[in-house]
Amino acid sequence: MDLKNFIGGEWVDNNLQTMPIINPATGDQLGTIPLSTKTEIDAAVNAAKKAQKHWALVPAPKRADYLYEIGFKLKEKKEYLAQVLTREMGKVIEEARGEVQEGIDMALYMAGEGRRLFGETTPSELANKFAMSVRAPIGVVGLITPWNFPIAIATWKAFPALVAGNTFVWKPSNETPMMAYELAKIFEEVDLPKGVANIVFGTGPTIGTAMVEHPDIRVISFTGSTATGSKVAELGGKHLKKLSLEMGGKNAVIVMDDADLDLAVEGIVWSAFGTAGQRCTACSRVIVHSSVKKVLEDKLLTAMERITIGDGLDPHVKVGPVINRAALEKINHYVGIGNQEGATLLTGGRILTEAPLDRGFYFEPTVFTDVNADMIIAQEEIFGPVISIIEVANLDEAIAVNNSVRFGLSSSIFSRDVNTIFKAQQLLDTGIVYVNAGTTGAEIHLPFGGTKGTGNGHRDSGQAALDVYTEWKSIYVDYSGTLQRAQIDT
Ligand code: SIN
């Protein structure tokens, strides 16, 4: 299918150059997207700006009604959307269903915010005066979303923006534009006012840059690589944008000597190799107490024998392809580095080339052991099905190793000791901590984001997302009939 931009409620075809959409499981072409330019961004921002004047005045509970309708449509189409998602992104069908469900949950959760959007009332220091704070919409917001969660992450950003009274211009990833197209169709079906949601396809350097530089886009919410996020930060800073940046991770599972090792292995396999290791929260380090290292490794290797690799549309498959050839080569490059650094390759380490996998982009789930915490493979984000096992002597060392990377998204600890668990959750320097579970599995009503190089202090999801898409406005109402002067010390 040849996708078109969705601008001002219309499907716009400007006879632009196109690029193909490829199914990573088979290499088949699924369609094309237009390679838009600054002209299309300008048109989308104009439409969004015009629409926002009216949208901001629609009562929040009425804005929320659209979100309920969007949520119900997503639910109606869940299976169809999951199939499209697996085709364009490659994740296995049960994960794709889960991701669409996240979109449904986010729609309904944020619709609930239409009747909350709480501010504060507070006493004034003066008599006959009333003080309160309210959340005000910001205006036109720019959303730049990644390919690994093409619908969930989009809804984490779009729905709080909408319920708060903003309109948006959204640049989805070139790799996974079909979910954006499907969402645009839903926006049309629920009669979302024209111009409230605008979608423009194209490359980061051209249209991403045009969005960040555009004077009428006040907020940029970005999820993607650290390299691109840093560029957005630099350019956005120059243009004084409000920025919400969500970038890399180097997430670890800690396995203590008192852990349930079978459970830990399940958690590691799921969070390291699910989505072919392409979650921001994916486990890419296992920090293990020396007394259980060997047993854990044996159990892990046994569990990995059961992993089936292939096209995610096959319900028996547990690990699908990675997103494209460049990703495959990047992962392979890091495996080469691991070998050069002297880590021991326990299993995996290959691009899979046996038919029919040779048609797509498949990497064998890979485990390195005897890894030092400062090796490159233990420090840099690989974004593929590769883990590094690092041995430690105690909890303090485990926490120090966990915190030794420049990222701080997710961490996890397996232990049965309440003291160990509470000390760890306090000292692990990550935005998300799991206890007796792997590093993935964020729920939409909690803040999602990380510390240090993972982000810039903002959060997607949960009530915290509203902070990105609203300004606080403080309102003082003086009903004394006199000019009461605050801050005058008489
Ligand atoms: C992600 O990591 O990008 C998605 C959230 C999760 O699975 O925790």
Could you characterize what this model shows?
The protein has 490 residues and is an alpha/beta fold. It has 2 domains: 5-247 and 455-475, Aldehyde Dehydrogenase, Chain A, domain 1; 251-435, Aldehyde Dehydrogenase, Chain A, domain 2 (3-Layer(aba) Sandwich). It is built from 15 helices and 21 strands. Helix 3 packs across helix 4 and helix 9 (261-273) packs across helix 10 (293-304). The N and C termini lie far apart (73 Å). Succinic acid (SIN) binds at residues 148-149, 279-281, 440-442.
Structure characteristics:
15 helices, 2 domains, Aldehyde Dehydrogenase, Chain A, domain 2, 5-stranded parallel sheet, 490 residues, Aldehyde Dehydrogenase, Chain A, domain 1, alpha/beta, binds succinic acid, 7-stranded mixed sheet
